[in-house]
Amino acid sequence: MPEWLEVVFRTLSAVTILFIITKILGKRQISQLSLFEYITGITLGNLVGYISLDTDTTWYLGFIALSVWVVVSTGAEYLTMKSKKVRDILDGRSTILIEDGTVNEKALEKERLTIDEFLEQLRKKDVFRVADVEFAVMEQSGDISVMLKKEYQPLTADILGYHISSEEEPKTIIMDGHILSDVLKTAELKEEWVRKELRKLNLTLDQVYIGQIDSKGELSVQTGTESFPKPANSSPKDQITELVKRLQDDLMMRKELASNDKDRLKYQEALDQFRTVMHAYQNKQT
Fold first, then answer.
1. Where is the YetF-like N-terminal transmembrane domain (predicted)?
2. Residue 11 to residues 62, 156, 276: CA-CA distances in angstroms?
3. Domain positions in the chain
4. Is the CB of residue 50 less than 8 Å from the CB of residue 101?
5. Top-level CATH class of 95-152?
6. Sign of the alpha-carbon dihedral angle for 273, 277, 282, 286
7. Which residue from 138, 77, 65, 133 is spatially nearest to 106, judged by alpha carbons?
8. pLDDT (tens digit per residue) in 116-140
9. Highest mean pLDDT: which range of 52-56, 216-220, 255-259, 279-283
10. CA 75 to CA 146: how far, in whole Å?
């Protein structure tokens, strides 16, 4: 066999085996790497390079070395799942960088993290002022997790005391002009229904690039150049109603977040006056 053909054959074999090994080792090898997984990745890459290009007569020994690393890595992953001590040794421990709003200078030095690098990581979390952070920790992967102080955290429905029904994940039922039968079956829908909805939009199936249904059972379509259905143009009356609702919700929110009874009473008075004015406006419109 010519040497160039042997290199081609060995490279294809090595890539195939490396793909199988990566599947065995799991998704963590291609996402957030621990120190041990990082070393494993480098080693496997070097071994595959040896198998592909080394033209000596014992190149096949590289496959034995690969097998050994697979056993070692798989065994290490199993031990980390079963033992906290082993996990701390192989994966390392997380490091607290900010606690109770105070930066831990020694922790930054321990992780060899400069102030510029630290601020850059915070900006990636949409945090531009260190004083806004209550707690920050560097994970084993090197990523930094941040918890803002309560007064700087985004408002949620739970904080406001609102009870909201759960939202289901939109299901993609059409892709590249083809209906995904398994997803459609999971959604308990039929192809006839899909084609009927497409006819309402004056579209054919082969025109659809992406088609999804939401938790309400409504179909939305992307053709690659346009999206359907088109948003309806709301009337001035609908826009006024929406603005009124937003203002009323804003006043109610400020009332709930008021720090004392006096301020809370003022917001309640404003709410009552607002409702009186709106009631008079609605009567005038009718």
1. 6-78
2. 12, 53, 79
3. 3-89, 95-152, 171-228, 239-285
4. no
5. alpha beta
6. positive
7. 138
8. 999 999 999 999 999 999 999 998 7
9. 216-220
10. 33
Can you give the pLDDT at residue 213? 92
Three-state secondary structure of the chain: CCHHHHHHHHHHHHHHHHHHHHHHHCHHHHCCCCHHHHHHHHHHHHHHHHHHHCCCCCCCHHHHHHHHHHHHHHHHHHHHHHCHHHHHHHHCCCEEEEECCEECHHHHHHCCCCHHHHHHHHHHCCCCCHHHEEEEEECCCCCEEEEECHHHCCCCHHHHCCCCCCCCCCEEEEECCEECHHHHHHCCCCHHHHHHHHHHCCCCHHHCCEEEECCCCCEEEECCCCEECCCCCCCHHHHHHHHHHHHHHHHHHHHHHCCCHHHHHHHHHHHHHHHHHHHHHHHHHC
Q: Does the 171-228 domain belong in CATH 3.30.240.20? A: yes
- What is the Cα 66 distance to its own chain's centre? 33
Max CA pair span of the chain = 96
Q: How far apart are the first and last CA of the chain?
A: 92
Closest CA to 122 of 106, 134, 107, 110: 134
Nearest to 90 by CA among 38, 142, 18, 46: 38
Q: Is the peptide bond before 229 cis (omega within 30 degrees of 0)?
A: yes
Instruction: Record the tokens describing residue 33, joined without a space.
Output: 């790497």
Q: How confident is the model at residue 35 (pLDDT cuts 50, 70, 90)?
A: low
Total-model pTM: 0.54
